[in-house]
Amino acid sequence: MKAAVDNKVRDIKAVWFEDGKVVMIDQRRLPHELVLTRFDDYMDVREAIRNMTVRGAPSIGAAAAYAMCLAALKGCDLDKAAADVQSARPTANDLFYAVRYMLDKLSGGADPVAAADGYARLTREKCEAIGRHGAELIEDGMKLMTHCNAGALATVDVGTALAPMRFAHDQGKRFFVYASETRPRLQGMQLTAWELGQEGIDHAIIPDGASAYYMSKGVDLIIVGADRIARNGDFANKIGTMDKAIVAKHFGIPFYVAAPVSTFDFATATGADIVIEQRPEEEVTEVAGTRIAPSGSKALNPSFDVTPAGLVTGFITEKGILKPEEIDRVMG
To answer: Which string of DSSP letters, residue by residue, matches 228-271?
Structure first.
């Protein structure tokens, strides 16, 4: 992704391995400052996943791969490390996929760094393919909408939902993007808008509750990411995604999900079987550490919701664009 570092625009990844340490952008500090954090213990990487220093299913997957890399380099019990890393967050399938990938590579004698770097490289290549396929859906003059952050920050580099927008923009297409703020952690406002701005893509931040209003005024295409996709096409994504899908169906707006095949969980039959992470209520009741909710009021804070497959127009994957009933084409 393009980012201003030391007053110079350069390409930078969301997470990588350098000089024996895992390096990642601290996404909690954006958009006000770009801070790089470094870890040399796999449990610290696990904590970075848990506390959302790193976010987005593919980037979480890459961070998990590098956590397993550190565990292997330090001679840790890999089965215990795998269980520790997988316990960081329950919903994103890429986390579990990456840990299984690394266990398989390491059991075969692979170099830990090469294996983890290979996983991250594959993630980028998949996102590039998603960008190429998805860009075909975008035409000059379109108004697009997205939710949460499914850009380069969430996917090591390039993005899933934002990848088609990046590729279309590079092709000279001009379009406008509504980026919903994404309460309560504000990933849409703080991360997606930051990425779109870095790329020079025209956009505006809107309150989550204004999404239906702007759809009623004219939105041509909605693209979101996903954290886990069940075998039947139901998918989990940031809370508020299902609202948009329902309204999009009402107004006849195409609704696409951009995700690599690693996000598909073929062992999970339907969305009813997806575990939804419940985040601390302070994320809702407080702003910058100051409580704004009435004393004594409780808050409920599911991090994700599950959108039924019947509301999805198609899945933009590295294998091409699939209708929900075509998912079995990428099984195995």
So the answer is: EEETTS-EEEETTHHHHHHHHHHHT--EEEE--GGGEETT--SG
